[in-house]
Amino acid sequence: MTKKQKQLLIRIIVAAVFFVPLYLLSEGIIPNELPKWAILVLFLIPYLTAGHDVIRKALIGIKNRRPFDECFLMTVATVGAIVLGEYGEGAAVMLLYQVGELFQGIAVGRSRRNISALMDIRPDYANIEAEDGTLERVDPDEVETGSVIVVQPGEKVPIDGVVTEGTSALDTAALTGESRPRGVSVDDTVLSGSVNLTGVLKIRTTAEFGESTASKILELVENAASRKAKSEHFVAKFARIYTPAVCFAALALAVLPPLFCMITGIGLGGGVTAGQLLRDWLLRACTFLVISCPCAIVISVPLSFFAGLGGAGSRGILIKGANYLETLASVGTVAFDKTGTITKGTFEVTAVHHNTLDGNELLELAAHAECHSSHPISLSLQRAYGKPVDPARVADVQEISGHGITAKVDGRAVAVGNERLMNRLGVLPEHCHSAGTIIHVALDGEYAGHFVIADEVKERAKEAMEALAKAGVGRTVMLTGDINAVAKSVAEEVGISEYRAELLPQDKVACVEELLAGSTGGKKLAFVGDGINDAPVLSRADIGIAMGALGSDAAIEAADVVLMDDDPVKIAKAIRIARKCIRIVRENIGFALGVKAVCLILSALGRADMWIAILADVGVMVLAVLNAIRCLFVKDL
Q1: 187 flagged as catalytic
Q2: In degrees rounded to 5, what are phi and psi of residue 190?
Q3: In a 3-state reduction of DSSP, which class is residue 250?
Q4: What fold is seen in the domain 317-342+458-564?
Q5: Annotated catalytic residue within 337, 542, 565, 617
Q6: C-beta neighbour count of 109 within 10 angstroms
């Protein structure tokens, strides 16, 4: 509980201590001979103790010419009740309204803590080793790329980098939502925001602090709340129209019926005076104002989205804004990239089929031609070569998107890529029956052989497809640049219903356009990719999801949802969180409007007093807030 909330709680307790005996006195339950003015003065103590800030906000709103809010409604209604002699009801409304505000503040704090856990990843300092061997603490912003920093046990990794010395275990829970520590040693990549648990690590930084993972995540979290969903926009517009409308309706209720009765004489007589009639309708108008207060909707809807974003963040799912929660809830088709999404993306050369060259020589040429590429296939060729490559031997490198690479190695023209590249160069490739991705090599315009490269399917890929089916996603599609045989094998293994193979990057965009055109019933299309090569598709889909791409600028920029590890099961989790959030928002709107409509009618008919008004306002708000908190919790399938 915050300091402000503790102060409000103390005010509520003090006001309640005064209110209870006073109410018993005013109702005659405790015998007394106090004059009416004395009871009024005494009731002002709990009233002002509980509601002085509400009155002040209402006056500020009037001064700023923006009077129509819940504080204005509460102030006018309670002051009206006190003026009409209903001291107890006026004080009770203000007291219980503050109880509801306290409850709402605690609920917001609880959902905010899920996002605050992410904010804790912000590092306060970085350790730089001085010439005398001592550690100097500096601001992370001052550390340049390529510097060596020291991270001791218990400290946060301040900047992304590569381990140059030491071994340790890292707690990555704030980044991925996973509690299991991750072991790291020399040459392993580490991300800022991780907590070093055991050994001392020396890390060579690969980014500036502002471009590190922790900074990107914090920027996403800080901006998420500013991206409002359609439901939030609806509530804002609704409140702007609804509040002044009910104020004028209450004014009409206080003036028009008694005026009509006085003119026609209806309702007068039988001991009922014009003053009593006017008092009765004024009290109805005050009750009407209390009931009409829109705080249940105004508070619970943003709180539901905030809780949904916080609940997702605590599970390693970063959703960039409430608007994406709404889109995610309507997903009916999920399209996947293959490499790095369905498969691990850790390619291994499983066979070398050489022609005139020796197999090792073929690998040497291919590894050098690919030495400037970070593509998983390029890295697999370099690993298979097993020796350091010399970039000085390589010239005229040209990467042809969706085809491969051409370069000159030791002055000889080398082409490494798929069958499309060979056809483009007029080279006739050999056909291979091995299972895997076939990478062909041409040397000086002549076919030199090929490699078979296999990629392993992720352990939970099949489970992810089953989870999507249980979550109500009716269609899954895999889009890949790989050959048809490999695509078919992977799709059948994991249970994807459709696949499109041998696609160039622009072909994937065309396929997404086709899938979007075929979407019906308001269903949305999500595309899941690694966020590097798939940025155009991530941007074009209704919602883009980047998997395991914390270090990728393309993922952060192009995707709407970032999964902070490479677990494909979290796609279904994200959809279920979004659907639960939207369902709760609709429940709260429907419940609040329904109860208020009934109570407003009863109030206008004189069948609802201030206690019913309190139930319709504070009670509905408390129930709506309780319902909104459910967004924090989504059970695993």
Answers
A1: no
A2: -125, 145
A3: helix
A4: Rossmann fold (3.40.50)
A5: 337
A6: 13
